[in-house]
Amino acid sequence: MSISPHRRLAPPANLLALDRADDVLHLASALMLLGVALTADRRPRARTRTGVVAA
User: What digits encode the pLDDT tens for the residues 8-32?
Assistant: First the structure.
């Protein structure tokens, strides 16, 4: 019983689909998450005596 050429197992690198498009998407998502983290890390605005956020 032989394995047909279409049923061969791919090497691990091919299963992970490590290519340039994947690298670009990972970099873009990392930069987006970094931007969100940096903007969320700012100090809160000063509050007035009534507890309402000052504009």
Answer: 555 555 556 667 888 889 999 999 9
CB 9 within 8 A of CB 17: no
Report domain extents, the chain: 1-55
33-47: per-residue pLDDT in tens?
999 988 887 766 666
pTM (two decimals): 0.46
Q: State the CB neighbour count (10 A cutoff) for residue 49.
A: 5
Q: What is the DSSP letter of 3?
A: P
Q: What length is written for the chain?
A: 55
